[in-house]
Every structure is written in structure tokens, then in C-alpha cells.
Amino acid sequence: MRGKSGAPESKAMIAAGVQAAAVGAGRCRRGDDSDPPPERRGRRRLPVAAAVVGAVLLSSGCTGGSDSDASASESPSATDSPSPTPTPSVTPPYPTGADGCHDNSGWTSDEVRTWLQIQARASDVETSKDVAVGPVQEGFDGPLCEPVTVQVEFWKLTYGSPSEKEKSDPGTPDFYFAMERAKRTRLRTDGSGEQQVTAPKKLYADDRSVCVGALVTVTAGKPLSEKELPESIKLSDAAYGNNDTVEFRTERVAVYELTRPKAAHVCNPEGKPTADPDKVPAPTAEPEPTSDPYGYDPLPLPTLDPATPTMSFG
After folding, report:
1. Which whole-number Å values give the CA distances from 152 to 158, 278, 297, in the listed order?
2. pLDDT for 217-238, tens place per residue?
3. Closest alpha carbon to 90 in 32, 138, 147, 134
4. Which helix (H) or strand (E) holds 128?
5. Total structural domains within the chain
6. What pLDDT does residue 241 have?
7. What CA–CA distances, in Å, run from 285 to 13, 15, 174, 237, 296?
8. Is residue 206 part of a domain?
């Protein structure tokens, strides 16, 4: 799996400090015919933060006095009508003008990326087998006066373990990965309607190789170039799920979703499985639980010897 290209190898971490790294750039292969030659990976990382816009609706109320007589005397008469609670005015984040659209002619690349972070949804790609780009709720879509070009790209990541000789080097990552584009789709959207991009079937198939993972990226503008691809990937397990980070060498990526390989620890340096994953536990596998689910074993109860004399008081 590791070629002889001059590109540096990349590093990544899995779970509690486990690392994976990209094999040289020369191993990226071209995806579908519409794609340019796939670019090489580099070192990685980039958590994507989704922009969140919220509105707080304020409600008003009144309180009476502590004395019951005073409260009664201050109560409104039957002919009084309660004052309606004012409804605060909320300005949508992308208000429309006289033309019925939001003027985005002067947007910077950061503003385009922020808008696309709200529009694109890829977190459930492994189950839904698609990526959606379109309005989320009223006020967030605009729609825009000038449509934005969006690139949805699917990448195949093949993982492999270092050789036995490399493992003696403390700087060696736990895994390598080779990266190639599997599919690219170009969209034009103003946010007024949802568009779905279907993922490659083989890339997310349940019976895919245990050494193969996937990555989907949603980017505004042109496709990702070789020098923008990641060189390292950090996989870490948190209390409430995975917290994986891909270090792209660009800020253009608005949304991405990484799908892990099923058992990279049984893969040889060429990215081929060499053992049954069910029989070879992963290096970060949880230890066998103790008799107590919270990790505490009960203290042994003392045994009473009936021959032991007792103390008496008289």
C-alpha cells in the first residue's frame, strides 16, 4: 500500500492516542472519469464547527403582593382586558431584499463557508448513503441572489499497519492510509431547494474490506487540490461517541464526515487483512468487565469460627 513516491508519510491517531498516517501522495488514484487526477494526502487535521444562529423569545409576567387583601384590591376588574404579551421581532440571518433574495455578491470565502456549513448535511452518510445540501429552516437559506458552486467529494481510505521494523521507531504511527477519490459531484445552489448526492455503493457497503474507510467533503468553489488534502487523521473515542478530526491543509472545507475502517489492526502494510478481526482484539479494546459493572469487586465477608471464644461481662 505504500508506494515509492517522494511524498512524506503522514501520521494520525486512533482512540486513546492511536495514530494513522497517509502513505505517499503518489498513491492517490483517480476516481470517476469526471474527476481530475486524484491528489496526494498530506498531514491532517481540521475540526469543522457548524455555525449556529438562535433567537431568544422573551416572555413577561407579573407578581401580586404577599398580603391577600392587597392582592384582591389590586386585581383588575372584570371589565379590564389583559395586555397582550409583545412578540419580539426576529431578524433572519439571511434576510431577503426587494428582489426576494439575499445579496451575497460581496461575500468573502469565510462567509460562503459559514452559509454552506448550515446548508450541508453529511453526518449520517453511512446509513442514509447520501449527502444533502439545501434549506434547513426558514431564514437560513436566503435564498441567495447568486448561486454558490458546491463540490461534494467522496474519498476511499485504505489503512495498513507499519512493518515490524518500523514499529521499533517511536515516531512511527499506528497505521498508514492511502487516499483516492471515489466520486465527485458539482452542484449549483442558492439554498431554495434541497439537493441530494448519492454515495458510492461499494464505498459504504457492509461487506467492504475491513481495511477500508471513507471520507466525504463538502467544499465551496473548486474541487480540493492535492496540496489541500489531509496528511493525518486523529481518531479519538469520547464518552458520548467518536470525536474524529481530519487535518486538511485548507480552510475551504465546510463539512466533512469520516467513516472508520472496521479493523485496521489486522491489515498489513499493503492494506490487506491478514487475520480474522473477531479473533484479534484491537489495541484499544476495552478490558474484560469485572464482576461489578462499575469496576468494584465486593469485599469478602469474614467467616466465623464457632470454636472462637467470646468475651463475657459479668
Report:
1. 20, 34, 52
2. 999 999 999 999 998 988 777 6
3. 138
4. helix 125-128
5. 1
6. 66
7. 15, 10, 15, 11, 20
8. yes
Cell of 206: 457492509
Helix (H) or strand (E) holding 179: strand 175-189
Predicted pLDDT at 28: 39
The pLDDT of residue 297:
55
Is 45 within 8 Å of 230 (Cβ atoms)?
A: yes
Which positions of the chain have pLDDT values less than 50?
A: 1-75, 304, 307-314
Question: Which strand (E) or helix (H) includes residue 74?
Answer: helix 68-74
- Tell me if 8 is assigned to some domain: no
pTM attached to this predicted model:
0.64
- Residue 84: the pLDDT is 66
∠ CA 103-217-237, nearest 5°, is 120
- Any domain includes 199: yes
* Residue at 290: amino acid letter: T
pLDDT score for 303: 52
Specify the pLDDT at position 79: 55
Residue at 77 is within a domain = no
* Domain carrying residue 211: 13-50+104-266
Length of the chain (residues): 314
Say how many C-beta atoms besides its own lie within 10 A of residue 300's C-beta: 6
Helix (H, G, I), strand (E, B) or coil at 265: helix
Q: Count CB atoms within 10 A of the CB of residue 134.
A: 16
Measured between alpha carbons, how far is 11 from 30 in angstroms, rounded to an integer? 23
Cross-strand pairs, 176: 21, 160
Residue showing cell 466533512: 256
